[in-house]
Amino acid sequence: MTKIEQLAALLVAELRGFEKNISKLESLETKISDTKIELNLKELKPLLEAHEQSLNLSKKQQDSYLDRLQSIVKNASFYPKWAIISFMSMIIICCLISFYAYTVKIETTEKEKIAYIKGEKAATEYINLYLSENPKALERYKKWSESK
Question: Residue 15 domain-assigned?
Fold first, then answer.
């Protein structure tokens, strides 16, 4: 039994120590909840103001850079105006020359057809006239055409 008594006494001592610790914690908790912490912002305030000023300055610089960039992009063109005008005028001139060459070719082919028909008629008339004036040539021609 002595062991049980010793264990009981040890357990009682531990419980009393635990109760003392709990009461200490409760008193500390009430002190902490009653304590008010005040922040001293006097030193931090100038730093925040300086940072705000640097941010404002940075924003102004970015805005001016963006404005310059927008004006450059607005005024920018990939090709100069004189190059565009020259290119367009060359295209128009090439189209006009092509149209002129096409019309000249059509007129030339029509004139060649008319000249061919005239030449064919003139040759036929000349051959008929020659054959009518030379009956021997007419007979030879008939023999020749029959042999083919």
Answer: yes
Give the span between the Cα atoms of 94 and 89, in whole angstroms: 9
User: Could you report the per-residue pLDDT of 54-98, keeping only the tens digit for each?
Assistant: 999 999 999 999 999 998 888 777 778 888 899 999 999 999 999
In a domain, 147, yes or no: no
What's the full length of the chain, in residues?
148
Where in the sequence is the domain holding 20, given as residue range(s)?
Answer: 1-33
**3-state SS assignment for residue 39:** coil
Number of domains in the chain: 1
**Rounded Cα–Cα distance for residues 138 and 60 (Å):** 110
Would residue 38 be called left, alpha or beta, if left means φ above 0 and alpha means ψ between -120 and 50 degrees?
beta
Q: Are 132 and 139 in contact (CB under 8 A)?
A: no
Those residues with Cβ within 8 angstroms of residue 103's Cβ, 6 or more apart along the chain or in another chain: none
Both tokens of residue 107?
A: 């007129």
